[in-house]
Specification:
Blueprint: H1 3-12, H2 22-26, H3 40-72, H4 83-90, H5 94-113
Helix pairs in contact: 3-5, 4-5
């Protein structure tokens, strides 16, 4: 993802994800109160907001995963992990771990120069 794409995504600021009350989570049919909406326009708008929020949260989580993987694999650490170790802990393949470590390094480098 380029910096301009990241800036655009941050500008859009999707609806915040709020934790649901425990009694609502216990009901498998309950999902952010969408099941109680009767107006299809309102349902479409709220479901779209949630979709955008989940996508943004996923993208941001992946960035944090990558930065953590890069930090754990940093050769300057005396207790550094190999790509195989990172892969095992994150339940990734080793090839994917290598890509995430590299991605994380690029994110860390960009944040240190910003």
């Amino acid at each position: 993802m380029t910096q301009s794409e990241r800036n655009e995504r941050q500008r859009l600021r999707p609806a915040p994800l709020l934790f649901e009350p425990s009694q609502a989570v216990a009901d498998p049919e309950h999902f952010f109160d969408l099941e109680s909406m009767d107006d299809p326009l309102e349902l479409l708008a709220r479901a779209t907001e949630l979709t955008q929020a989940f996508r943004a949260a996923t993208d941001r989580s992946v960035e944090f995963q990558a930065m953590a993987a890069a930090q754990l694999a940093d050769p300057r650490r005396f207790d550094r992990l190999t790509a195989a170790d990172v892969a095992e802990r994150a339940e990734w393949t080793e090839d994917y771990a290598k890509k995430m470590i590299e991605f994380g390094r690029s994110l860390l480098d960009a944040s240190s120069t910003a």
